[in-house]
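TICKET #2291
ISSUE: user wants both folds in one file
ATTACHMENT 1:
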Amino acid sequence: MNEPIIDITDLSKFYGKARGIEHINLQINEGEIFGFIGPNGAGKSTTIRILMNMIFPTAGSARIMGMDVIKETKKIKNHVGYIPSDANAYTSMDVHEFLSYCLHFYSTENGEKRISEFLEMFGLEPGRKIAELSLGNRKKVSIIQSLLHNPKLLILDEPTTGLDPLMQSVFFELLRSENKKGMTIFFSSHILAEVQILCRRVAIIKSGKIIQVEDIENLRKKQLKKVSVEFGDPAEKAKFTIPGIERIITTPSNLMSFMYSGTVEDLVNFLSNKKLNNLTIEEPSLDEIFLHYYKN
């Protein structure tokens, strides 16, 4: 079996007494689009900054392409692209000047051609000063910069911040295209929908700990539904029971809401002979999904 392209072993980081991450273990295979998902403050950026050798771990280790992220960081960065959550660049330069400057750090064939192609793809003006750009356009510059040297591994930390839906679609298609060419992508986000669209496997992190590593198809199948039912009379509400419901919230009226892990078909069949005024089934929030995993 091939060595993981990212191999994290018992990784921890504390800022004084404050927790960053605790005992993270994670292996990402070459060629994957791997999702790293959790709410803000969960430890995603801390993990990524250790991988990029921006901060040092308190304990544990991490390797990229078999190389230690601390001892061999220069070698690693020749093969890694990185998009930070905050899109900062040299604001005194214009777009093309900055991207051309970045090329000098790598031995890259057809670098200027790639710059031109990406600028056209994202609709950026090469002569615009970076200081004049919106957050979304700065993020586009960051995306382009991360891909100029054809990295073997692309690490993304909340990469869609500031991008409008059209540009997000363009960006996702670009990621799929690069992945088909062999690029491994580590995609960190707090937005579940993004991860579901792109990723094959996902790690869920909360409060500095990984609580689940799951194939995305299995995650979809297991994903909870948030259900609200307004019954026609109190008697129907009182005798309502069906496998797969949890965290029931009732009100003095005939309204009941709960999380449901069964199939919609089973739920509708069960409710078909009940007196109902209204039924709502929707996707739960990311935090509600996390609560489900904690309870199980």
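ATTACHMENT 2:
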Amino acid sequence: MIIIKLGGSLINSAKGLVKEIIDHSDKCRDEILIVPGGSVFADTVRKIDASQEAAHWMAVLAMEQYAYYLADGTGAKLIDSLKIDCIGTYILLPYNLLKEKDELPHTWDVTSDTIAAWVAKQLDARFIKVTDVDGVYINGVLEKEIYAGELIGKETCVDRELPHFLIRNRMNCEIINGNCPGRLVNALAGNVSGTLIKG
């Protein structure tokens, strides 16, 4: 099982990436679950005056809006649970699942990054974050491999909670630039060009 967090920053190319994921899954017989980012829908939530509690659930619903967009015309299947019975590519509608298992803090420190990591933990799955940058930069230098603890307190391409979550659960996160042709497919095949965050 592979969990792919598909960043909202990739909205303009995201459907092509979903089709690449489906092609890989069909060819290699992998089970792949895409966890959508919040994209422009979550950006709207950030701009309004809502409590952290309300904003948390509104942002999760923003992920669902992006999920419907990603599924539209791509052939990926939308699901709202972690019960995956067949090989293929699925896109998670996370609201009902997170309402049922409400284990993450309700703050902007927790975004779809940590939610996707939580999903990967539930399924004991490989975790890949696909975004619009090459990986984690520290002082302007791209890190090929870095320990999660080194990210605590730093502004990077992952949310503030993710390093803590990876450490607590001894998990890794691979970061791939989805705007670079071929990188995602290569990563799915085990050839990662980006940053490996080690928990």
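RESOLUTION: both attachments delivered.
EXTRA DETAIL ON ATTACHMENT 2: The mean pLDDT is 95.
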